[in-house]
Amino acid sequence: MDIKYVSTTCPYCGTGCGFNLVVRNGKVFDVAHWQRAPVNGGKLCPKGRYAHEFIKSPDRLTKPLIKKDGEFVEATWAEAYDLIAEKFRSYKPAEMACLSSARASNEENYLMQKFARVALKTPHVDHCARLCHSSTVAGLAAVFGSGAMTNSIMDIADSRCIFVLGSNTFEQHPLIARSIVRARQSGAKVIVADPRNTPTARQADLYMPFVSGTDVAVLNGLMQEIIRNGWEDKEFIARRTKDFGKLKEAVMKDAYSLDNVSKTTGIPVESLRTAAEWIAKAEAAALIYSMGITQHTTGVDNVKSTANLMMLTGNLGRPGTGVNPLRGQNNVQGACDMGCLPNVYSGYQKVNDEAARKKMIDAWGVEDIAEGRVGYTVTEMINILADNPGELKAMYIMGENPMLSDPDLRHVEEALKNLEFLVVQDIFLTETAELADVVLPAACYAEKDGTQTNTERRVQRWKKAQQAPGEAKEDWQIICDLGAKMGYPEQFAFKGPEEIFNEVAAVTPSYHGMSYARLDPDGLHWPCPTAEHPGTPILHREKFAMPDGLGVFSPIEWKPPAEVPDAEYPYVLTTGRVIWQWHTGTMTRRSWSLEKEAPTGWIEINTEDARELGILDNEVVRASTRRGSIDILARVTPEIIRGVMFIPFHYKECAANLLTHNALDPVARIPEYKACAVKVEKIAEV
Ligand SMILES: Nc1nc2c(c(=O)[nH]1)N[C@H]1C(S)=C(S)[C@@H](COP(=O)(O)OP(=O)(O)OC[C@H]3O[C@@H](n4cnc5c(=O)[nH]c(N)nc54)[C@H](O)[C@@H]3O)O[C@H]1N2
Ligand SMILES: Nc1nc2c(c(=O)[nH]1)N[C@H]1C(S)=C(S)[C@@H](COP(=O)(O)OP(=O)(O)OC[C@H]3O[C@@H](n4cnc5c(=O)[nH]c(N)nc54)[C@H](O)[C@@H]3O)O[C@H]1N2
Ligand code: SF4
Ligand SMILES: [Mo]
Fold this sequence. Notes:
Layout: E1 3-9, E2 18-24, E3 27-32, H1 46-49, E4 65-68, E5 71-74, H2 77-90, E6 96-99, H3 106-120, E7 125-126, H4 134-144, H5 153-156, E8 161-165, H6 169-172, H7 174-185, E9 189-193, E10 206-208, H8 215-228, H9 234-240, E11 241-242, H10 244-251, H11 258-265, H12 269-281, E12 285-289, H13 291-294, H14 299-312, E13 322-325, H15 332-337, H16 354-364, H17 378-387, E14 394-398, H18 402-405, H19 409-417, E15 421-426, E16 438-441, E17 450-453, E18 458-462, H20 475-485, H21 497-507, H22 516-519, E19 524-525, E20 551-552, E21 571-576, H23 592-595, E22 602-606, H24 607-613, E23 620-624, E24 629-637, E25 644-648, E26 676-682
Parallel strand pairs: 6-7, 6-14, 8-9, 8-12, 9-10, 11-20, 12-13, 14-15, 15-16, 21-25, 22-24
Antiparallel strand pairs: 1-2, 2-3, 4-5, 4-16, 17-18, 18-19, 21-26, 23-24, 23-26
Bound molecules: ligand MGD (2 copies), iron/sulfur cluster and molybdenum atom.
């Protein structure tokens, strides 16, 4: 028997843990600990531990499929490519759009935006970062000049006070939670604010339950208390920031006195006071946030507000400090870095900067590329398809499942059905793939080489452990084949991922100094501008990435969510995740060890609210919003604040996104997944 161990990195979350795939006679059959993995030192959460199970699912796509008379028929690659190229050639560039994949490698994401911009010449390319941290990218870029996590994962362990706001770190980034535990063991205070008493909240020294959508009120209240007591870091404010006066004017308003904030948010005054004191007086305080902050119509405001608090207290540019947005998907940081966003090329070089556009035209050796204007975001694409049929006609979606992950699914379905031609490239026949005209079978992480970039900007390797099933191909190979078919054989003539990575490094300033040889075994943190540069674990040590080097305070007022409770829909609905499942469940629901732990969805209802509604634990209830209704199991619990209800969005049989609202942040265009108005009813017995 031939057994080998292949060290690679996890295909699930942005923590970027390393593990070994155990390969027997050419087939992956288990995951084993890789003790020297840089991020996790061999430890894994259940998803990493069982990341081999879905690979061998009998549902894997193994052949291209073409829809004929409403039914999928197996096709050869040549037939599929011919049809796609013929169709894509028949549309004008701006009638086509591409969605890239935060599940795929940097190399594949780089090629997807290159394909959109060079082969299709469309400016419309985006991916799920829009639904996730687009508010971070926009908000932190505006205040610090760079939209990424400021510190590293290990660094969190050195903090003396950790403020976790809108992140359920213990379930969603379990191996980052380990750094929180370490900090706490050495005496750090942990503060968690969340509408739900999550496993993360249960680790806190101070837990502040509060109503979804009131984050800015909380943050402004803390800042007012800090300024009132003279606890702000005056030296840091003077030396490293500007516009403090504007911030002060905003947060000192009466609306943000502790009494008023307590009324708006539900947090007791005493808790707010303690939190303000702990954060301000800690030698090094770190703020950790995730979707509770970003997924709002005020997402960018929320993000800027977190940055205000940390600048006010001088908690940037040192170990154990920072504004730390935890990136979600395994390679969402990389997909952004690679330019799978409608406003930037790789390395955040702006598409509407003529010099950057000229640089890419020269680098890619073509006469012309997509026009230098900002294309549509995912959320705009869906709205345009639904409301303005005919403007967009064809879409190419790699590794995303909007038919379960986008808000207001009825609207999404209507939108995607208005397409004339849809290509979906995935490892499973997803709800989105069901609507496609052509489905292309892709290899998964264990079946390809490449790199991915974790939440702390660390670029790490993926290593091929087995062949893809049937005729499935690696995403980079498929895009290269299609690029050549579309008339750009030289631009897509890559023999493998390493060659693609070398092009990425050549055109992307923050990756200039990287190569496959340098990435083994610990990876490198960008920015890494030269071949000698050691990488940059902590950003903004001496100055911010702004032209004048100063961080910018922003005066932010609290605004309620786009849809607030009323007599008909009297509760706030918020949505999110559980440790056992991953998004639309394509992979985790095909992993027996995970699926058995959380086999279907539920709605969390506060015990008092349930009593008033006459709802019992574990009964099936009907949850409805202005968008739709679902029947779902009630989980009656004191662990959620009164007036707020929570549904995990993984389950197609009770899809939370049939209920959610597609109201968008005006800048980041992120939907408000974390707050809309809902009602819940008993289902009449028949
Ligand atoms: N197991 C698992 N892990 C994952 C994922 C997964 O699907 N499954 N997905 C990955 C991805 S892509 C992402 S983006 C991350 C997301 O990671 P998280 O953001 O940690 O996950 P969520 O469950 O979406 O939301 C976090 C918390 O926000 C709280 N919350 C709800 N409304 C509000 C609000 O208005 N304000 C605040 N402050 N908090 C609120 C929720 O109660 C929840 O506990 O997780 C990553 N990790
Ligand atoms: N209600 C609600 N909705 C949400 C959220 C929420 O908090 N609440 N969170 C949002 C957030 S933060 C995110 S990130 C999105 C995620 O939304 P999606 O990205 O749409 O969700 P996934 O299920 O991760 O879809 C990824 C797809 O990629 C496929 N895949 C995996 N590996 C590969 C590969 O190597 N190649 C190819 N071609 N395909 C591959 C998977 O089978 C799957 O179909 O959901 C958003 N939706
Ligand atoms: S914490 Fe994230 S990266 Fe680590 S094993 Fe779990 S899912 Fe994978
Ligand atoms: Mo995400």
